[in-house]
Amino acid sequence: KNVESKETTHKHDVRSEVFKPCVEDKDLAFCLNEGECSIIETVAGVHRHCRCKEGYHGLRCDQFVPKTDAILSNPSMSFVSFLPHC
Q1: Residue closest to 55 by CA, chosen among 33, 80, 79
Q2: Could you say which of 11, 13, 31, 41 would form a disulfide bridge with 50 (CB–CB 3.0 to 4.6 Å)?
Q3: pLDDT at 42
Q4: Average pLDDT value over all residues in the chain
Q5: Residue 56: closest CA among 22, 32, 28, 26
Q6: For the ranges 1-5, 18-22, 34-38, the one whose mean pLDDT is highest
Q7: Domain count, the chain
């Protein structure tokens, strides 16, 4: 298994965070838009984390943000096309 470990030191505590790939169906379905799911085990408990594909962000990769150059090259995506024509 590929496990990525990250050590974090705070002023008053030391904790270890371990990222493990999601394997259960409910966890695999957590990330949207082909985001990569990881389980993070901390002293506070187990949490799910998504690594989003380009153009997506948010806790579950549920928010799309088009690249600026894509908007400029495709006027139909631009806000200008939504303005009323006089």
Answers
A1: 33
A2: 31
A3: 87
A4: 75
A5: 32
A6: 34-38
A7: 1
